[in-house]
Design goal:
This protein is 13% helix and 53% strand. The chain has 164 residues and is mainly beta. Strands 1-2-3-4-5-6-7-8-9-10 form a ten-stranded antiparallel β-barrel. The longest helix is centred in the first third of the chain and has 21 residues, at 2-22. 13% of the residues are buried.
Amino acid sequence: MRFLSKAALSIGASLLCLQAAAVPCDAPEHRAFDFWLGEWQVYRPDGKLAGTNRIEREYGGCVLHERYTTGAQYSGESLNAYDAGRKVWHQTWVDNAGALLLLEGGLRDGKMVLEGQTVQADAKRIRHRISWTPNADGTVRQHWEVMGADGKWNTAFDGLYRRK
């Protein structure tokens, strides 16, 4: 019986590997966020440097890995991937302040828009919406909004990405 279980697991793992090899992450849906790839300096609306960001393709091109730092003891990173089964982009963000943010969405009107919520220690839920807009000059605007108690979106961060 153990032999059959091991054989079934081995066959299942082989089929998953073959399926992954047969369906690489190079379909247009998997490339929809590629405009964000690169090494960036991120500027606030007042023109001051907010931080630097590096976004690279990893895991055979299936994941965008973001590494952000302000240079002022704050840093974080995200993993971004297209979930073909659900036809949605997913981002998991973590940082050195203990934050965890899970976002999902996709392309909307030419920009990547991901939404999610966090739960604070007092059980208060906060909705987040972040959009990345590729501009004609090669820059990218990141606009992070949080929903206020009044039900309106308020800007939490507005950054302009310029390539290094």
